Amino acid sequence: MQNSTPSVVILISGRGSNLNALIDHAKQTGAYQICAVISNRPNAAGLALAKTAGLDTAVLDHTEYESREAFDAALADLIDEYQPDWLVLAGFMRVLTEGFVNRYLGRLVNIHPSLLPAFPGLKTHQQALEAGVRVHGVTVHLVTPELDHGPIVDQAMLLVLPGDTPETLAARVLALEHQIYPRALSALASGQIKSVNGRLEGTLTLPLIHAIK
Ligand code: GAR
């Protein structure tokens, strides 16, 4: 009997360039199947990308909920209609409640634009420049209740160049994001990397670190 393709629900808030990379990879490899894209912002540009790709989309506007708990409960109800194997945050700019995170623990994945544990939170590229680091990058990790923590699935790095601004760094990091997120999700979906009692086991077959110009 053939195993079914792992299913994925993707949460977004905005542009959706990582979503686009994840869609392309799914089309090219069939490593996972995207069953829905959900945005907390009605005008997120990523929704149009998802629709063009023929995916189910939904909007759950967080401003219509009186508390973080109420929003997260409604979001979980919506997600659970799809029974996804994986829940993937792709630029989903909401802090999630502990209850929500625990409901999807071990199958909730995020991408963060820094080399965690350095520079959690917002404005990571500005934080990196202010700290004077010489290398910077991106992390794919499993989500735990502590913000921007959790077992690291993959990282990619680049050199900070003289004259870099938050914008130039962001653009180069984003190109790395598009390379590592699909690969990391495939490795999780295939079981090549597994979460065992909150720790990751297994390795990616490609080098974990990419140094690019
Ligand atoms: C990406 O850079 C992603 O790493 C970041 O938001 C951007 C979304 O861009 N996520 C976070 O900062 C989460 N803490 P996209 O909508 O084009 O994928």
From TrEMBL:
- Annotated pathway: Purine metabolism; IMP biosynthesis via de novo pathway; N(2)-formyl-N(1)-(5-phospho-D-ribosyl)glycinamide from N(1)-(5-phospho-D-ribosyl)glycinamide (10-formyl THF route): step 1/1
Q: Where is the Formyl transferase N-terminal domain?
A: 8-185
Q: Where does N(1)-(5-phospho-beta-D-ribosyl)glycinamide bind?
A: G16, S17, N18
Q: What keywords sit in the KW lines?
A: Purine biosynthesis, Transferase
Q: Which residues form a coiled coil?
A: none
Look at the named UniProt entry and state the broad enzyme category this protein falls under.
Answer: transferase
Q: Which residues bind (6R)-10-formyltetrahydrofolate?
A: R68, N110
Instruction: Write the Enzyme Commission number(s) for this entry.
Output: 2.1.2.2
> Domain of life, per the record?
Bacteria
* Site, Raises pKa of active site His: residue positions: D148
User: Could you give one GO CC term from the UniProt record?
Assistant: cytosol
- Catalytic activity annotated for this protein? N(1)-(5-phospho-beta-D-ribosyl)glycinamide + (6R)-10-formyltetrahydrofolate = N(2)-formyl-N(1)-(5-phospho-beta-D-ribosyl)glycinamide + (6S)-5,6,7,8-tetrahydrofolate + H(+)
> Which positions are catalytic residues?
H112
Q: Name one GO biological process term.
A: 'de novo' IMP biosynthetic process
Molecular function (Gene Ontology), one example: phosphoribosylglycinamide formyltransferase activity
- What protein family is recorded? Belongs to the GART family.
Function summary: Catalyzes the transfer of a formyl group from 10-formyltetrahydrofolate to 5-phospho-ribosyl-glycinamide (GAR), producing 5-phospho-ribosyl-N-formylglycinamide (FGAR) and tetrahydrofolate.
Q: Which HAMAP family match?
A: PurN
Name of the protein:
Phosphoribosylglycinamide formyltransferase
| Taxonomic path | Bacteria, Pseudomonadati, Pseudomonadota, Betaproteobacteria, Burkholderiales
